[in-house]
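Annotated sample (chain length 239).
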Amino acid sequence: MNFKNWKRIMLKLSGEVLVGNQDYGIDPDKVISIADDITQVHKKGKQICIVVGGGNIFRGISGAAQGIDRVTADGMGMLATVINALALQNAIEKNGISTRVLSAIPMQTICESFIKRRAIRHLEKNRIIILAAGTGNPYFSTDTAATLRAAEMNCDALFKGTSVDGVYESDPKFNPNSKKYSTISYKKLLEDNLKVMDSSAITLARDNNIPMVVFSILKESSFAKAVNAEEPYTIISEK
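Output written by the structure step:
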């Protein structure tokens, strides 16, 4: 699989990676580090779409488990993703890169609403776009939102930046001897119920033939290295 042929890339960031050395919220140093990494890739001529989670601030499913109505909890989680998107936008633009935040929930005073044609036009004008508020609907994760937007935006691939450097047969944080996959199919991922992304996101990627690359975003320049096929990663595809 030739990474160099991928022109338009979707980057899915877990909200937790923005915590950095803190216990909660946004670590400015970590956001700057990730923004610098994204800037490196952008300067190589790649068109970049970003979807960021909100788990560092509020996770909808956790709120529902605490007794908050699920629809309300998911709405709170979507707002958390907008906060993260604005923080990321601020850090990227300090590097001189034009950026736009587009929200699935209308918030005209702080960002644009997501419209596909407008989003594509921003990419054509060499801007990075950050797609916030998930799908705009409850019961759908930001993983599903990233895959949906990747399909809508005709992205060549989806890169998922997490705290783990690929897909393992079991959680390497609890099982240090867990086997890591260099490549894995959508089918096996679903059959083995590997918790990389939720099943709806994986199915959507499979149905639209969108290859996914899972890597750790925690190291310096890890996204740039993953795009160059240098960083440890796992490729999820049909084959």
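Annotation: The mean pLDDT is 93.
Annotation: The two ends are 10 Å apart (CA to CA).
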